[in-house]
Amino acid sequence: MKKAISFLFCLISFQAFCQHKEVINTDKAPQPIGPYSQAIKSNGFLYVSGQVGVDPVSRKLVEGGVEAEVVQIMANIKAILSAAKLDLNHVVNTNIYMKDLSYFQKVNEIYGKYFSGSFPARTTIGVANLPIGANIEITVVASY
């Protein structure tokens, strides 16, 4: 009986741990345009929703093509990380979605300037389309 009670307590504690999540939101990054959060902090990780090159003030896609979009995306990601008291050094995984993979090298040059030391794991995927006519979308996972 003692083992059963101990097991039950452990199971309840584990479920409570796994269900804990905190919504992260900042006005320094674009507000969601659908039923999602900017980021969710849960179980030692921060999951940042995909960011496109939208200026948080004008709420419009920045002009200047993929290069300008990457710079704005990284600013948005940094703002969301900051709201969770993290920075780019905490990023462990990145997913990049691009409409035109011919910009791969240019994106690498810009993206690479935001990280030093050990780079996060990364996947880059070519896609047919992205929200609001964006050329690129980036999402990250950070650990805390």
UniProtKB/TrEMBL annotation:
<dbReference type="InterPro" id="IPR006175">
    <property type="entry name" value="YjgF/YER057c/UK114"/>
</dbReference>
<keyword id="KW-0732">Signal</keyword>
<protein>
    <submittedName>
        <fullName>Endoribonuclease L-PSP</fullName>
    </submittedName>
</protein>
<dbReference type="InterPro" id="IPR006056">
    <property type="entry name" value="RidA"/>
</dbReference>
<dbReference type="InterPro" id="IPR035959">
    <property type="entry name" value="RutC-like_sf"/>
</dbReference>
<dbReference type="GO" id="GO:0005829">
    <property type="term" value="C:cytosol"/>
</dbReference>
<comment type="similarity">
    <text>Belongs to the RutC family.</text>
</comment>
<dbReference type="GO" id="GO:0019239">
    <property type="term" value="F:deaminase activity"/>
</dbReference>
<feature type="signal peptide">
    <location>
        <begin position="1"/>
        <end position="18"/>
    </location>
</feature>
<dbReference type="Pfam" id="PF01042">
    <property type="entry name" value="Ribonuc_L-PSP"/>
</dbReference>
